[in-house]
UniProtKB/TrEMBL annotation:
Family: Belongs to the alkaline phosphatase family.
Taxonomic source organism: Elysia crispata
Protein name in the entry: alkaline phosphatase
UniProt keywords, alphabetically: Magnesium, Metal-binding, Phosphoprotein, Signal, Zinc
InterPro entries: Alkaline_phosphatase, Alkaline_phosphatase_core_sf
Length: 171
């Protein structure tokens, strides 16, 4: 008789095999020049983007929780496969934005980050402890706020926008 741990492992393995089989989509039979033409179109579109100089009137910061490169790639492939294609050639809506950035961050006190501390880091520029939001790494996570003091609050890009008379919101 298998242990509970072995049963769970077998169930996960069987589920993975089923998912892999369901995700197989035959790629279109393109001519060799197809991908060169696609790349040429991408380069032509990139050259048409005009640089903007000066100070931005507004900016929108979109922080997608759990949207590492692997998750975005998986989402792109899945969405493309839902449209009957292989998936890799599909573009998610935000991948066509004219300007995007990528940020990798983590907590001061943990190797695997949480959303609160990483959002604090992205919006303020200072890394924070797991489970803390809007405060520096001198504030420890826990049921007591004993380590919180007003001087440990982080100033965020939203605070700076408000100081400049701009609006800010979150969704």
């Amino acid at each position: 008789m298998m242990t509970v741990s072995a049963q769970k492992t077998m169930l996960m393995f069987a589920s993975l095999l089923l998912l892999m089989g369901a995700a197989v989509v035959k790629a279109a039979n393109e001519e060799p020049h197809h991908w060169v033409d696609e790349a040429r179109k991408d380069i032509d579109r990139a050259w048409m983007v005009k640089p903007v100089y000066g100070v931005a009137k507004n900016s929108i910061i979109i922080i997608g929780d759990g949207m590492g490169l692997q998750s975005v790639t998986a989402g792109r492939i899945w969405k493309g496969q839902q449209m009957g294609r292989s998936g890799e050639e599909y573009k998610l809506s935000f991948e066509d934005f004219p300007n995007v950035g990528l940020s990798k961050t983590y907590n001061v006190d943990r190797q695997v980050p949480d959303s609160a501390g990483t959002a604090s880091a992205m919006l303020s520029g200072y890394k924070a402890n797991v489970g803390t939001l809007g405060v520096n790494s001198n504030v420890a996570y826990g049921p007591s706020c004993a380590t919180y003091r007003a001087d440990r609050r982080l100033t965020t890009v939203l605070d700076y926008a408000l100081q400049e008379g701009k609006g800010s919101s979150r969704a």
